[in-house]
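A protein record in our archive is deliberately plain, so that people and models can read it alike. The tokens are whole numbers drawn from a learned vocabulary of local backbone shapes. For reference, a complete record is included directly beneath this paragraph.
>
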Amino acid sequence: MPTDSTPRPQTRVALVTGGSGGIGRAVVQRLADDGYAVGIHYAGNKSAAETLAEEITARGGQALTVGADIADVDAVTAAFDSVEAAFGGIDAVIHTAGIMRLKPIVDLDLAEFDTVHRINVRGTFVVAQQAARRVRAGGAIVNFSTSVVGLQFPGYGAYVASKGAVEALTLILARELRGKDITVNAVAPGPTATPLFLEGKDEETVKRLAAQAPLERLGTPEDIAEVTAFLAGPAGHWINGQTIRSNGGII
């Protein structure tokens, strides 16, 4: 029987960027269900992040919100500081935050291209730097790519270029963290029913994309959260330097 002197298991702590909505929200909920204390990052939707944190604490979990421009080094550093101060450390960093601009390469304004790469590439790099410095041994870093890197849909040029960079950074960081007992992987969702994916698509387009997978449906945020939680936790710790295509079998 445990006594007062028996060491208690350390609560695992996660920071989820883009945690206020879509896939990020599902990841936060899944990790909270697994007993993680969760830092919920938001860029613009503070109220959604705070509502989610309140839901988690109401059912006995631990959560706090941190706002930051994901590409701003000082803001991201402060977000990591807040999570560490509140929970005593960080074991998993799940970087779901990103943006998408869809337009043929010939038509895309370079200002939009720069915005996509500032958030998706620089933002990933900034978060990865902090995560590499702070995640505790036995922990994990999970970045987010897209299955469109392989599918190569027209109109996705700027977005796919940014996510190709994320996949390269993921593998290199995994190798650079040799000896640290920290894994680095990426999840690459296929068509997933989130506001980001559904925006600007008519019903026929959505049906066509859903039919591509042998499972004949769109993914859900919860589908993606399951594989993310696996990679973030002890059960997935032998997987390292990989990009997992979570897309129902499209490719």
Summary: The domain at 13-190+221-246 is CATH 3.40.50.720 (Rossmann fold). The two ends are 51 Å apart (CA to CA).
